[in-house]
Amino acid sequence: MVMKHSLPLAPQFYVTAPQPCPYLNNRIERKLFTGLNEINGEALNNTLSSQGFRRSQNVLYRPACVGCSACISARIRVNSFRLSKSQKRILNKNSNLIRGYHSALATDEQYDLFNKYLNKRHSDGGMSEMTIFEYSSMLEETPINTKIVEYHSKTKNGRHKLNCVSLTDVLDDGLSMVYSFFNPELTKLSLGKFMILDHINIAQEMNLKYLYLGYWVPGSKKMDYKSKFSALELYIEGEWKFASDISKIDANEFKGSEYSILEQVSQLPLPPKY
Fold first, then answer.
1. How many angstroms separate the CA atoms of 66 and 46, rounded?
2. Would you state the pLDDT for residue 126?
């Protein structure tokens, strides 16, 4: 007898083991996640990204912490976005940068900049000892439409120098900045904020509605920069809401879902093909 095995049509969801929260003290982190495959990955990524999930390689995840829901998915409605005076200055300071699009393939130049960034900004993080093979997996293990957006400056001898990079997914309704890094020595250029501003321009050029920024956590200094962008929407209690007065949002107000993991999964709308 020949036995045939095939992947299940419906996505399978799992929960990570509890671990210390990297953003808020005395909190425990737990994630709900599912895998992406080559067949239905694009549709699943589009649908779950609009419900607060994020992609990491071939996995989609969303926080599912007990007693806390302060990690809030954030996106910018690009056609409603308005530049502040400081953001205009950031664009002017980086007007010499040359934007380039590439397939999701790792290079030695990227990896060198990535290491430089981590050593300076996140030396105590879980990615600080990532090898070039692990870095390549982070970029290249994607079953969906992913681009590498690079920004170069010209040196005095005419060569191009890599200043910053974003790993960016193209969704059906927007762009998602999966991971970005930059030259940490160029602090005056505010390169991280510049990449967000330029991705707003890219989304507008592509007639897409949103720029997905990942999670914003009220009270976390690491995440505070995201609150400085206008037209910000937050995914709260199952719907996207304009953040009209983000300064008044308190992490202690978010006590976690009233539903069990099983109930949360059963309530997730999935693409029609599932």
1. 26
2. 66
